[in-house]
Amino acid sequence: MPKKIRLGILGGGGDSLIGVLHRVASFINDNYEIVGAVFNPNHEDSLAFAREIDIPTNRIYKDFDTLVEEELKLPEDERIQVCSIQTPNFLHFPMAKKLLENGFHVICEKPMTMNYEEAKILQETHKKSGKVFALTHTYTGYPMVRQMREMIKAGELGKIHKVDARYYQGWINPIIHDKEKRSSVWRLDPKKAGISSCMGDIGVHAFNMVEYTTGLKVRSLLCDFNYLYEDNQMDVDGTVLIRMGDHVKGVIRSSQVATGEENGLAIAIYGEKGGLRWEQENPNFLYRLSDTEPIQVYKPGHAYNSELSLEGTKLPPGHPEGIFDAMANIYKGAAKAIRGEKYNDGEFPTMEDGLRGMNFIENTVASHKKGNVWVNMD
After folding, report:
1. What total of structural domains would you count in the chain?
2. Which residue, 12, 13, 32, 350, has fewest beta-carbon neighbours within 10 Å?
3. What percentage of the chain exceeds 70 in pLDDT?
4. pLDDT (tens digit, 9 = 90+) per residue, 121-180?
5. Which residue from 131, 27, 84, 88 is spatially nearest to 351, judged by alpha carbons?
């Protein structure tokens, strides 16, 4: 068994949902050990949190720059090998860039950067570094999403005709309808979240799922946003028409004010031979649709699934796996890449996915601002 990869954590302290998700995911397959961190902007809070989760405090640093400086003083076989960035959006780019420039591998939350220009700069930095960069589009880690990808790649749906992806949540309702709250939340602050709230936070996941599962690229799009209140011009709802080819079209629907919805990510792909449908809230069921046969249901852990799907399944059939396991599969794929082992290119999202995501977000904003017109993706 290879030695555990030395992991550093940036952000994710306190009651952060993302923090818990990343930490548990890193432990699941026994590939990582947290050896250093900056959990919070306040050093005392970071130290207190490290003690709370029983991590030694000798490498809990006062800030990010100190972490990089002090880690580089350590022998190479002791220092952090990869850093996981779990901070608010505006810190992703400067942190990832500095880490890559100083020889660290990077696992980064999405969106990768604040804008497309930063994404292109980071791509160049990554190329020069020779290091691994993994972007945590978590939902690509579900076994049945991976099964969907492999079935489409094998031509089981034939020529793709139509794609339909949605991501509906309702959590921001009590915030967006309260003037004081909506002016104080970082997700609705363009200086910290970037130019988009809804499409930048969750719509980009639906976009990524479309390209991940189909293997096709979105060529152009038309977007219509809803802001609800004039004093906050950050989108909280949007619909995007997409074109992926001359006869391959679809829609991406995203909302943070879908009242009563929880985490409603779903995707359906339709082709000449059949269709596939998957929902994140019922992740262990992949439905295969046909005009001539009854609906088929695929579930994780069975021998009929693809190698990529089975590689991401930890339990026998009938034992539910969830979002921690999905994120763990991304960490597992990144671990293979860091160790120089062979891996499937579907095991973790890459710099290219981050670049495509930022291009998508900026083009949705541009399409809306220009009067809901078609714009081309790079």
Report:
1. 1
2. 350
3. 99
4. 999 999 999 999 999 999 999 999 999 999 999 999 999 999 999 999 998 888 888 888
5. 131
CA atoms of 132 and 103, how far apart (whole Å): 10
Question: d(Cα 113, Cα 21) in Å, to the nearest integer?
Answer: 21
Q: Is 332 left (phi over 0), alpha (psi -120 to 50) or beta?
A: alpha
**DSSP three-state, residue 164:** strand
Cα 309 from chain centroid (whole Å): 18
Cβ-based neighbour number of residue 130 at 10 Å: 9
Bridge partners of residue 286, in order along the sequence: 278, 298
Report yes or no on 337 lying in a domain.
no
Instruction: Provide CB contacts within 8 A for 42, sequence distance 6+.
Output: none
DSSP 60: B
Nearest to 325 by CA among 167, 145, 131: 145
Residue 218 contacts by C-beta under 8 Å, 6 or more apart in sequence?
207, 210, 211, 242, 243, 244, 360, 377
Q: Evaluate whether residue 175 is within a structural domain.
A: yes
- Angle between the N-to-C axes of helices 351-369 and 204-214, in degrees from 0 to 180, rounded to the nearest 10: 120
**Between residues 174 and 69, the one the model is more confident about:** 69
180 inside domain: yes
Q: What are phi and psi of 60, to 5 degrees?
A: -95, 105
- Domain membership flag for residue 301: yes
- In angstroms, the CA 353 to CA 356 distance is 5
User: Do 100 and 133 touch, CB atoms closer than 8 A?
Assistant: yes
What DSSP designation does 138 have?
G
The separation between CA 153 and the C-alpha centre of its own chain, rounded to angstroms, equals 21
The secondary element (H helix, E strand) that includes residue 176 is helix 173-176
Token digits for 144? 């049945």
* Residue 220, helix vs strand vs coil: strand
Where residue 200 sits, what CATH number does that domain have? 3.30.360.10
Give the domain range for residue 202: 142-306+363-369
Give the three-state DSSP class for 111. coil
Q: Kindly report the number of other CB atoms within 10 A of residue 182's CB atom.
A: 21
Q: State the chain's mean pLDDT as an integer.
A: 95
* Residue 2: predicted pLDDT: 66
CB neighbour class for 116 (10 Å; exposed up to 12, middle 13-18, buried from 19): buried
| DSSP for residue 304 | T
